[in-house]
Design a protein that fits this description.
The complex is a heterodimer of chains A (238) and B (288). With 238 residues, chain A is of the alpha/beta class. Chain A has 10 helices and 10 strands. In chain A, strand 1 and strand 2 form a beta hairpin. In chain A, helix 5 runs antiparallel to helix 6. The termini of chain A are far apart. Chain B has a single domain, classed as Orthogonal Bundle (ABC transporter involved in vitamin B12 uptake, BtuC). The chains are: A alpha/beta (238), B mainly alpha (288). The structure holds adenosine-5'-triphosphate and magnesium ion (MG). Chain B: Pfam families: BPD_transp_2.
């Protein structure tokens, strides 16, 4: 079986700064993959290339059989690769409902908008009573739920999450991770970035450690969790 | 209130509707693209000449020309965005300002070369008709123009608040990367926003020609007015544009009625400075 996502020798940067120095990895349909690494390692940069917000300098990204390396972001969403970005990037002055509706902007997802809305609200029931409030007025955790909800509204084949637990109350982090597990159990492929790596690795079939723009270690989530080097570097276990 | 002052207020409200529409166009472009379109007035001048010549050549009623000038300026705006402004995206912001400034000079000079600097007046058969409102006599054309501007504003507000297209434009204005991640073609929305903002001055230009002179530099008047209105109503605030337009219309009309000579423009600038000094976020705007 050919993989859902295949990244080959990806290089990218900003201006004179070169950030990614040849990243390669693959993810199959239905799998959860986690990418972990320190601040500034290049995780978000990798994701920005996948979703088309940043143009790669070299390398190829094949998604669902198509070369998306140079496609604009909106075409990539259309193909089913949908990202929940770092910082969430919601529409703060619009209601939660409008934010979710915008997730179903494209024609295909739009046909199934009301089903998707029901599904999102059953994942995140707390949003039900916030639907008419401006998204910017919600707490960080609830905004993260809106961001994940908005991405689900696009009916992704691959859901890409950039640090969904960043700056969020622990209780809500748990809720978000429970939902990620549910989505994965339902067969959705997920690519996840986390600094808080215990949660991420324990539910991943594949995991990569990225340092200074290169993958330095890979394996299943379990393997990495059990690796003494990872334990020392990221989990504070001596 | 004296009849004279009352008449001034009514006339002000009526012209204010046009200011509001012109400013709305400027605000849409600014809100979505962060570009202040210095060619806004010059593009309105295009709409005015178009209306003037359509009337002169084929006797097309200026109010009918709204449906020609609006679409023509829409297309012109789209072309300007695609070929002049889009290539500048990602470079320093002042490049886009300079492009619109250059376009303004180009259009004004081209009009001067083609049509001479003469002031022209479009005389419809109903130009002299008046309507009595209370103690005031108001030219019929002023009322028609006001209604046209109001209708165009209402259509735009409806599109922005209620349609999928409008929602996508607001989304891009608020969070462009977020919008792209929803599958919205951001470049397409930019083009549309500039085109819609330009169509506003096409409509406004056609609508004012029944009572406003046409000349190559006539756009300056409306440029200044729309900057003041945008500042009054709040940069980026759509409903603020209409309110600001009406306020400016009234203020200028009263000023013209009680102040000597050509204090109109001076008054506009005075309002502009006063708002910037005391309420820089505009009357409805919350944050800069
Ligand atoms: N827009 C940008 N312009 C310039 N440099 C950037 C930009 N975004 C990121 N960088 C730089 O690129 C490098 C990688 O950043 P990136 O955001 O990919 O890291 P990350 O692994 O996601 O880190 P974090 O865990 O802090 O989110 C960093 O050195 C960062 O300073
Ligand atoms: Mg990051």
């Amino acid at each position: 079986m050919s993989s859902l996502l295949a990244v080959e020798d990806l290089q990218a940067g900003y201006g004179n700064l070169s950030v990614l120095h040849g990243i390669s990895f693959e993810l199959n349909a239905g799998e959860v993959g986690a990418m972990v690494g320190a601040n500034g390692a290049g995780k978000s940069t990798t994701l920005r290339c996948l979703s088309g917000l940043l143009r790669p300098r070299a390398g190829t990204i094949i998604f669902a059989g198509e070369d998306i390396s140079n496609l604009p972001a909106h075409r990539i969403v259309e193909l089913g690769l949908v990202q929940v970005p770092e910082g969430r990037l919601l529409f703060p002055a619009m209601s939660v409902r409008e934010n979710l509706m915008l997730g179903a902007f494209l024609p295909e997802p739009r046909k199934r908008m009301s089903q998707s809305m029901d599904a999102v609200l059953s994942y995140f029931p707390a949003l039900r009573e916030k639907l008419d409030l401006p998204a910017g007025s919600l707490s960080g955790g609830q905004q993260q739920m809106v961001a994940v909800g908005r991405a689900l509204m696009s009916r992704p084949k691959l859901l890409v999450l950039d640090e969904p637990s960043l700056g969020i109350a622990p209780l809500l982090v748990r809720e978000i991770f429970e939902n990620i597990e549910k989505l994965a159990a339902g067969g959705l492929a997920i690519l996840l970035i986390e600094q808080n790596i215990g949660n991420a690795l324990s539910l991943s079939q594949r995991a990569w450690v990225i340092e200074n723009g290169a993958i330095v270690m890979q394996g299943s989530g379990r393997e990495l969790l059990d690796d003494p080097r990872i334990q020392a570097a990221y989990l504070g276990i001596q | 209130m004296s009849a004279l002052l009352f008449e001034a207020v009514v006339a002000g409200v009526l012209l204010g509707g046009v200011y509001g529409l012109v400013a709305l166009g400027l605000n849409i472009i600014y809100g979505v693209l962060d570009i202040i379109n210095f060619a806004h007035g010059a593009m309105m001048m295009m709409g005015m000449y178009l209306t003037f010549w359509l009337f002169r050549a084929w006797g097309i009623d200026p109010y009918l020309s709204i449906f020609i000038a609006g679409p023509v300026l829409f297309v012109f705006g789209a072309v300007v965005y695609r070929f002049l402004l889009d290539p500048m995206r990602g470079t320093a912001l002042q490049n886009q300002f300079l492009v619109t400034l250059g376009l303004s000079l180009f259009l004004t000079n081209a009009a001067q070369a083609m049509f001479s600097p003469d002031f022209r007046v479009l005389q419809t058969s109903y130009a002299q008709e008046v309507v009595q409102i209370g103690p005031a006599f108001i030219p019929l054309t002023r009322i028609f123009t006001f209604l046209a501007a109001l209708a165009a504003t209402a259509v735009l507000l409806f599109i922005f608040q209620r349609t999928r297209l409008g929602r996508s434009i607001r989304a891009v204005a608020q969070q462009q990367d977020g919008a792209a991640l929803c599958g919205i073609d951001v470049r397409h929305v930019y083009t549309l926003a500039f085109a819609i903002g330009s169509a506003c001055v096409g409509v406004a230009g056609a609508a004012v020609t029944p009572f406003f002179y046409v000349s190559p530099t006539v756009g300056d008047v409306f440029n200044i007015a729309s900057f003041v209105v945008v500042v009054l109503g709040g940069l980026g605030s759509m409903s603020g544009s209409l309110l600001g337009g009406l306020l400016l219309g009234v203020a200028v009309a009263i000023g013209a009625a009680i102040l000597p000579g050509s204090f109109k423009e001076v008054l506009m600038f005075a309002i502009f400075l006063a708002v910037l000094l005391f309420k820089p976020t505009g009357l409805l705007g919350s944050k800069a």
